[in-house]
Design a protein that fits this description.
The chain is an all-alpha fold. Helices cover 77% and strands 0% of the residues. Helix 2 runs antiparallel to helix 3, helix 2 packs across helix 8 and helix 3 runs parallel beside helix 6. The protein is globular, with a radius of gyration of 18 Å.
């Protein structure tokens, strides 16, 4: 796999990651709790890595070619985002440095992060459509290995952007609890809107 191919994919990956969505909303929410940033981001990265391995194993193509499986993924993923969004609107995160400052544990933040990215049908479909385009069937490495390398590059892009977003939210809102609640509710509303859009797109499509 050439350096030029990796560089081209990295550019496309960064453009995808810097587009605000459910992942940004979750990173902002995690940023309001200092102890939640690392586990929340790690969870989202694990979700992206799982999606990469699924595509590399060829399961992705099988799921994408099975309408029922794809429909189930869309509904489950959208319902999960909807549930998280409603929870953030009802109980917006506020700045906290204490371990008990939030009801959700570190493991809870990590598990939800896996769901935010791993159950997002848009992420799965993007990987299915994007990763294979940068592989070379005639290359020295097997295509699955190339997909894993590309997916790892994407995970590094995600790590960089998510940590910046979470840290920025922490820095700007740590001394502004009222503003933090507003931003938390806005992030929750964004998750709800994304979930409803995915559901509507699926039903109308």
């Amino acid at each position: 796999m050439s350096t030029a191919t990796l560089a081209a994919f990295w550019g496309v990956s960064v453009l995808f990651v810097i587009t605000p969505g459910a992942d940004w909303a979750y990173a902002i929410a995690a940023g309001l709790n200092k102890r939640a940033i690392v586990p929340a981001v790690a969870g989202m990265l694990a979700g992206h890595l799982i999606a990469t391995l699924i595509v590399a194993a060829g399961v992705g193509a099988l799921v994408a070619g099975t309408p029922f499986a794809l429909s189930a993924l869309t509904i489950v993923g959208s319902a999960y985002l909807l549930w998280l969004g409603v929870g953030m609107i009802a109980r917006p995160p506020t700045p906290s440095v204490a371990t008990g400052g939030q009801n959700t544990s570190r493991m809870g933040w990590a598990a939800k992060g896996v769901g935010v990215s791993g159950l997002n049908p848009k992420v799965f479909l993007l990987f299915l459509a994007l990763l294979p385009q940068f592989t070379d069937p005639a290359g020295e490495w097997p295509v699955p290995a190339q997909i894993i390398v590309l997916g790892s590059v994407h995970v590094l892009s995600c790590a960089m952007v998510y940590l910046i977003v979470a840290a920025a939210a922490r820095a700007v809102l740590s001394t502004r609890p009222q503003a933090a609640r507003v931003v938390g509710r806005v992030s929750g509303t964004a998750m709800v809107a994304i979930a409803l859009f995915l559901i509507a797109e699926h039903l109308l499509g």
